[in-house]
Structures are given as structure tokens and as C-alpha cells.
Design goal:
The complex is a heterodimer of chains A (403) and B (290). Chain A has 403 residues and is an alpha+beta fold. Chain A contains twelve helices and 19 strands. Helices cover 35% and strands 24% of the residues of chain A. Chain B has 290 residues and is an alpha/beta fold. In chain B, helix 6 runs parallel beside helix 7 and helix 7 runs parallel beside helix 8. The longest helix of chain B has 13 residues. Classes of the chains: A alpha+beta (403), B alpha/beta (290).
Chain lengths: 403, 290
């Protein structure tokens, strides 16, 4: 589950990670209110106004309506109001968004961390994620912070470092020291980075994260180590023990049809094609998308109805697929194992009748337990449905209805 | 004979008395699998499905001599169940549970590393040695006994492959559902190695998905070891968009080498008979082994 910067920072802070402080606001007036509060607490000389959307590259992104950047400096309270107004309600386009951008409905008003002092501020990169090959978490870091890490990896791979964490010990002191040395830190900053890494890793495990990306990690002019940005992705499976994080889900950031599907417990991903599909099992669903492509179509969606493909779920799934106007045909592909195909077939017939006006061709392939009975049931239902038993037959029928 | 499980395997069910455990244990028993008991903490001393229930896996092992366990324990407690089985000396731990927090699996995988056991799954359909033992949730009748081994990340796609193999007049030795999570006990390569060494397996069907590097790794090993048995491969997700999770948490393309086409290219270079259409798996097996 993706969350906003301000939410990610609140989690990090709870685990003792030093973050750039701030408050979220939903209106220019609200932004001024929280800026006043922040001024009292931090005595920050200027403010940073940061658009809150689920996409990176905000600082270099542009708000279509006003031309404002997604992250801007505001010198005083008037500027906070004015600059928040130029971001809120606009669409922010970044390298990671679609061309139409993302609607911004929240801004994070933050303290300035780049104040002058005894030494130059310096930016680093740090992320924590799972290395699937070893089954262990890794901390990836670089002295080149504040820029696109893919570019650093491509141009100067020797400036990217990795620490693999032993799950039974957690991050060790010597690893924290090595991170400090590799980042070129010394004195107070060297001590601070070790505390920072320990707290960051504790947060990663403690909140059941799937990924942390802190870019930049900043050494301030007075040698503090601070997370200036925080991209936090939570492990969906881990939410069973963090009910409080469920409230952090921002459904306005997701495709509305996908939200409806997830509420119905269906695993649906919208794609750009013309053939909808409904399948049981994720692997078979992807294989079905592939066979649609090989038959001359393009998959309009991924949809896994799961193990219990009863009439109600099938009906909901149909309604969701049909919301997409580009769908020109639907392929249902069910391999009945424990689930009996004739039951699924009955579900399809019932759903079809309930919905009433399905006017795109429907190809139904039912294989496995009671497949023959299921085919008879579909064929005798009087519905305009093409039935198939093997996957190849289904593919051929998709091809026929498209041509 | 096959691998991992067979007619001599003594199987216990962790999460035996729950609804999932009860349903699938009954199906396994009906198939002829030697289920010797189960574990549900707090219900030790009772009987369920005419078999003894134990409080702990170590009690179950001491009394029944079980060497295989299948886990249906809910996600929040499943990683603990895996560690308990390993500690009690279970040799093959098959975890069906879907939705285990990744952090728990990171810990469990490290815990079992030097305990001489094989973990299959989690989030998998299980393992079946056709005609001998079904230790999983797959429909047994689809797997006709024969000499083709199957390794797959996906449940229904495994059934699809087994069905196609049967339709061309062949059958399955052992089918291993390795699971679709980011962390699994037995990656593709380890499962392939088992089947390469199995004298009852003549050819291997290797089915993968986008995401991770399991299949390319297996493919390179197969080539380096002289392609001893023919391998037929399919990778699902050619049409999946980058950066989106496709049902299985592990099925997300993050790097260039994790896409379906990149994986298939590597597999072809390594002498694997790759099909682009999932409808052609059975036909390809027939063609390759004649």
C-alpha cells in the first residue's frame, strides 16, 4: 500500500527517525494555520510547500493550471497562502504520473532544513527493501542524494552501496559504521548517521514496510541527519497487525474501478485493451491476458475472481469489466478444481440474466470438474455465449469474434 | 515414486481442525494420502477425521513419526508454524497459507536455513505425486500418473498444464507448486534440481511469471548441467504492465530482466522449449519427448 509523504514521516517519527517536520493542509487558509504552528514549534525562517500525491519527481514536476512546481519555498505566511493556492486543486505532472497529472488535494507545509551554518548541507540517498534472491532486507545507499537514483546506478554504479541485513541480528553496528564511512561522513555527522540507520531499519521492520526510499537524507549545516523526503510503501499482508494504517489508504489516488473491485474482494487491474477477462487464479489470469494478445486482441484488464467464483462474485466482476467502454468482448476462463464448473456456469448464466444488457460477445471456457455439464448448461441457456473447453478453443473463439 | 512426497510419506496437518484444514485434509485422505494426524494447539488428545490431534508438532512427530507437514494456519501465525515444524524435525514443510507478512517470512526463512528441511510455498497449491500422495489443495483427478514433472508458481496454471499433459496421453510424476510470494522456500531452481535427479521423471514443465529472477537462474543451471532432461517452459505476463502487482505479490516487473519476454529469451538461449501460448504446453511436451 502506497502512502503520502506526510503519513510516511509520521510513521518514521514514531520509530525515532529524525524527519523534516511539518503539517498537512487541505486549503491555502489551512496551510497558513499550520505554518504558524510550525513556526512556533521549530522557529523555521522559511517554509517548504510540498504537494502530496502518490508519485515521485514532485520537485521537478509542474502544476498544469498554474505552472507552479510541486515543491516550492515560501518566505513568509503570505507566500505560504499564495503558493499553496497555486498547487492545491491543480494537476501535478511529473515523470512518474500520466500526461494528465494527478489532482493535488493536500499540501505538506514543512520546515526548511537547508539553513546556513558551520558546514555545507549535504544530500544522500538511502532505501530499504527486500532482496528477493536472498530473502533478506537490504539497505541501498549512495553519497549522491537528491537526484534520480536510476541515473546514478546507470552512470556511476560504483557510487551505490548495499548492506544485506541478517534477519536474526538486525542491522549491526559495523554495518552502520560502514555506511557512515562510505558516505564520507565524519565527526558528529558520522555518529548521527548510525543512529539514523538503526532507527530507520527498526521502523522498516516495525511497520511492516515493503519499501522505504529516503531521497534525500540530509546532513544539515549543524551536522544533524534528517529524512527530508519519505516514500513509504507498506506490505499489504502486514496490515493485519496495523489496523491503524488502514486509515492511511487514499482511495482518491487509485483508479475508481479498482477501488470498487477491491471492496468486492476482487483482484482487478485496469489495462488499455479491448478484451475483458475474468479468471480464477493470478497465474492463469496473466496467461489468459497473453492468449488474448496472441488471438489478435489486447487485454482490457487483469481480474482474478479467486477460489469461490459464485454467482454474486461473477456478477460483480461482469459489472466491473463492463464499466470500461473500450471492452469489445469478454473471455471467462475458469479452471474448476475444488470449485465445480457447473456451479460456475450457473453463476454466469444468472449474472448474465441479472445484468440484462450485455451486448458484447462473451466467450466462456470452463475446464476441470464437471466441465462437460457446464458446457451443456451454457449451450442450453439460450444466451448468446460462445462456450469452449480447451484453452486453444477459447483462443480461437476470441479471434473469431474480433475479426 | 516422484519427489518430496510419496506413498510412504507420513503427513501431519497444521491447522488441522480449522475449516480449510478439515476440508483439504479430507480430500487428501480420500486421494489415498497417508495423513497420520494433525496439530491444533489446545486440542491435543482429541481426534479429528479419525486421526489424533496434537498440541505441538514435536508431540506429533514423536508419536506418529511424521516427516511431512502441510500448513493451513492463518497468515498472522503461519510463519511461526513453519518454524515449529522445522524445529520438530519435519523434512518437508508445505505451506498453503496466503497473505503471510513478508517480515515474518524473512525471519522464518533465516530460521529454517540450517535445519535440514525443505519449505514449499507459502501461497502455493502444494505438491502432488500422482497416484501416491496429494499434499495440497489441487484437484487430484487432473493429475494422471506419468513421467512429466511440473514446477509452477501458480495454482490454476499448474492444473492447466497437468490437464494438457493428460490430454496428449501423458501423465505427471510430481507437480510442485512453489508459490507466488516474494519469499518462498523452494525457488524454481531447487525444484527443477529435484526433478532432474528423479528417475521417474523424463521431462520437466517449468511455468513462471513476470517478476524476480527464479526462472532465468534455473535456466542457466539447466544449461550448465548439460540439459540432461528436456524442459518445456512458459512465462505468464507478457502483456502485464510494468510496476503493477498482478495478483501474486511476487508478480511485479521491476527490472528489465524480470519481464516475460526477457525471461523467455534467456530460457530459449539455455535450450528450454519455450511456448508463447499457454494453450500449447501439452502439445509441446508431446512434440519434445515424442
Amino acid at each position: 500500500m502506497n502512502i503520502h509523504e506526510y503519513q510516511g514521516k509520521s510513521i518514521l517519527q514514531n520509530f525515532g527517525v529524525t524527519v523534516q517536520r511539518g503539517y498537512v493542509a487541505h486549503s491555502p487558509e489551512g496551510a497558513v494555520e499550520v505554518a504558524k504552528k510550525l513556526k512556533e514549534e521549530t522557529n523555521t525562517p522559511v517554509f517548504v510547500v510540498k504537494a502530496q500525491i502518490h508519485a515521485g519527481g514532485r520537485g521537478k514536476g509542474t502544476v498544469t493550471e498554474t505552472g507552479s512546481r510541486g515543491v516550492v519555498i515560501a518566505k513568509d505566511l503570505d507566500a505560504v497562502k499564495e503558493k499553496s493556492a497555486a498547487i492545491l486543486g491543480g494537476h501535478l505532472v511529473t515523470l512518474q504520473t500520466k500526461a494528465e497529472g494527478k489532482l493535488v488535494s493536500k499540501v505538506f507545509i514543512a520546515e526548511d532544513m537547508y539553513y546556513p551554518g558551520a558546514s555545507e548541507p549535504k544530500e544522500y540517498y538511502m532505501s530499504v527493501l527486500l532482496d528477493r534472491a536472498s530473502g533478506k532486507n537490504v539497505i541501498v545507499y549512495s553519497p549522491d542524494g537528491g537526484m534520480n537514483i536510476e541515473d546514478v546506478a546507470h552512470n556511476t554504479p560504483e557510487r551505490i552501496f548495499k548492506e544485506t541485513i541478517d534477519p536474526l541480528t538486525g542491522v549491526n553496528d559495523f554495518q552502520c559504521r560502514r555506511i557512515g564511512f562510505n558516505l564520507g561522513l565524519e565527526g558528529q555527522g558520522f555518529k548521527e548517521i548510525q543512529k539514523f540507520v538503526k532507527a530507520l531499519y527498526a521502523a522498516y521492520v516495525g511497520c511492516d514496510a515493503a519499501m522505504f526510499e529516503i531521497n534525500p537524507v540530509l546532513k544539515t549545516s549543524d551536522d544533524r541527519i534528517v529524512a527530508v523526503d519519505a516514500k513509504v510503501t507498506l506490505d499489504g499482508n502486514g496490515l493485519i497487525r496495523h489496523k491503524d494504517y488502514l486509515e492511511m489508504r487514499d482511495t482518491s489516488e487509485e483508479d475508481p474501478i479498482e477501488v470498487e473491485a477491491s471492496n468486492a474482494d476482487l483482484n482487478y487491474v485496469k489495462l488499455d485493451g479491448n478484451v475483458g477477462c475474468m479468471v480464477n487464479g493470478a497465474g492463469l489470469a496473466m496467461a489468459t491476458m497473453d492468449i488474448i494478445k496472441l488471438s489478435g486482441g489486447d487485454p482490457a484488464n487483469f481480474l482474478d475472481v479467486g477460489g469461490t467464483a459464485d454467482a454474486k462474485r461473477v456478477e460483480t466482476a461482469f459489472r466491473i469489466i463492463l464499466k470500461d467502454p473500450s471492452v469489445k468482448a469478454i473471455l471467462v476462463n475458469i479452471f474448476g478444481g475444488i470449485v465445480r464448473c457447473d456451479r460456475v456456469a450457473q453463476g454466469i448464466v444468472d449474472a448474465y440474466k441479472n445484468i440484462g444488457d450485455i451486448n458484447v460477445p462473451l466467450i466462456v471456457r470452463l475446464q476441470g470438474t464437471n466441465a462437460e455439464e457446464a458446457k451443456k448448461l451454457i449451450d442450453s441457456s439460450g444466451l448468446a455465449v460462445h462456450s469452449a473447453i480447451t484453452l486453444q478453443e477459447a483462443a480461437d473463439k476470441v479471434k473469431a469474434v474480433l475479426s | 515414486m516422484g519427489v518430496l512426497v510419496g506413498k510412504n510419506s507420513k503427513i501431519i496437518v497444521q491447522g488441522f481442525t480449522g475449516s480449510e484444514g478439515t476440508f483439504h485434509a479430507s480430500q487428501m485422505i480420500e486421494y489415498g494420502t497417508q495423513v497420520v494426524g494433525g496439530v491444533t494447539p489446545g486440542k491435543g488428545g482429541t481426534t479429528h477425521l479419525d486421526r489424533p490431534v496434537f498440541n505441538t508438532v514435536s508431540d506429533a512427530v514423536a508419536t506418529t513419526g511424521a516427516d511431512v507437514s502441510i500448513i493451513f494456519v492463518p497468515p498472522a501465525f503461519a510463519a511461526d508454524a513453519i518454524m515449529e515444524a522445522a524445529e520438530a524435525g519435519i523434512k518437508v514443510i508445505i505451506t498453503i497459507t496466503e497473505g503471510i507478512p513478508v517480515a515474518d517470512m524473512v525471519k522464518a526463512k533465516a530460521y529454517i536455513a540450517d535445519r535440514h528441511c525443505t519449505l514449499i510455498g507459502p501461497n502455493c497449491p502444494g505438491v502432488i505425486t500422482a497416484g501416491e500422495a496429494k499434499v495440497g489443495i489441487m484437484p487430484g483427478f487432473v493429475f494422471k500418473p506419468g513421467r512429466i514433472g511440473i514446477v509452477s508458481k501458480s495454482g490454476t496454471l499448474t492444473y492447466e498444464a497437468a490437464d494438457q499433459v493428460a490430454k496428449v496421453g501423458l501423465g505427471v510424476s510430481t507437480a510442485i507448486g512453489i508459490g507466488g510470494d516474494p519469499i518462498i522456500g523452494t525457488p524454481t531452481l531447487d525444484a527443477v534440481k529435484l526433478l532432474m535427479e528423479d528417475k521417474d521423471t523424463d521431462a520437466i514443465v517449468m511455468i513462471g511469471e513476470i517478476g524476480g529472477e527464479f526462472e532465468p537462474k534455473a535456466a542457466r543451471w539447466i544449461k550448465e548441467n548439460g540439459n540432461k532432461k528436456p524442459v518445456i517452459g512458459f512465462i505468464a505476463g507478457e502483456t502485464a504492465p510494468k510496476g503493477r502487482t498482478m495478483g501474486h505479490a511476487g508478480a511485479i516487473v521491476s527490472g528489465e530482466n524480470e519481464s516475460a519476454s526477457a525471461k523467455k529469451a534467456i530460457m530459449r538461449e539455455c535450450g528450454i522449449h519455450v511456448v508463447d501460448s499457454p494453450a500449447q504446453i501439452g502439445a509441446k511436451v508431446k512434440e519434445v519427448i515424442g
